Amino acid sequence: MRASYSDSELIRAYRGGDEQAFEILLSRHQERVFTKIHFIVRDTDLANDLFQDTFIKVVGLLREGKYVEEGKFLPWILRIAHNLAIDHFRRNKKMPMVRSRDDFDVFSILDTGETHIEDKLVQEQIQTDVRNLIDFLPPEQQSVVRMRIYQDLSFKEIAETTNVSINTALGRMRYAIINLKKLVDDNGVQLTSY
């Protein structure tokens, strides 16, 4: 019967002490979450470890009441999984290994000065995360942020374009930054490369 419950109903049941409700949530979403992690790390064993870490973190956050129900449970779990996978790369700064018989690592003495693929991946994801977070802002704040960041308009130009005063444009940007910081904190998004 519980299998027909929505994610929201299962979360409420789990918070109320029904452990089986979480098992249903897990089985409902495990394939999507594992696929997301595996796509990032390209290693089945590592993906399995990160998958377990993801659900351990989800359980902890649910028990602490840090998940705010907005009907977006799967995107929330996928964000946690994504962040854990990226954190793995940040921590380990993976470098290709070439070993000789005496286990000498050739790459440990080479520094090409080039950006490692993981660093590039992290930077691209940070930019994507910021763009996605902007979508959650009120429309007036979205437009100010996009004009300022992506179109490089001055606040005077933004004010003229949106037909508001400069102070209003500045105020909208200020509130957008406050709201973005809150979204980053609430969703556990990391916007640094290290």
Structure description:
The longest helix is centred in the N-terminal third of the chain and has 23 residues, at 19-41. The chain folds into 2 domains: 1-92, Rna Polymerase Sigma Factor, Chain: A (Orthogonal Bundle), CATH 1.10.1740.10; 115-194, Orthogonal Bundle (Arc Repressor Mutant, subunit A), CATH 1.10.10. It has 8 helices and no strands. It has helices spanning 7-15, 19-41, 44-63, 73-92, 117-134, 139-149, 155-162, 166-187. Helix 2 crosses helix 3, helix 2 packs across helix 4 (73-92) and helix 6 crosses helix 8. Helices cover 68% and strands 0% of the residues. By secondary structure, it is mainly α.
What structural class do you assign from the helix and strand content? mainly alpha
- The CATH homologous superfamily of the largest domain corresponds to RNA polymerase sigma factor, region 2, helix turn helix motif
Rg, Cα atoms, Å: 21 Å
- Summarize the helix and strand pattern as letters: HHHHHHHH
CATH fold descriptor of the largest domain:
Rna Polymerase Sigma Factor, Chain: A
Report the biggest beta sheet as strand number plus sense, adding barrel if it closes. Answer: none
User: Segments where pLDDT lies below 50 for 5+ residues?
Assistant: 94-114
In DSSP terms, counting alpha (H) and pi (I) runs of 4 or more, how many helices? 8
What percent of the residues sit in helical stretches (DSSP H or I)? 55-70%
> What is the residue-averaged pLDDT?
79
**Proportion of strand residues:** under 5%
Total separate domains: 2
The CATH architecture category of the largest domain equals Orthogonal Bundle
| Beginning-to-end CA distance, first to last residue | 45 Å
CATH class wording of the largest domain: Mainly Alpha
Number of strands: 0
Shape: globular
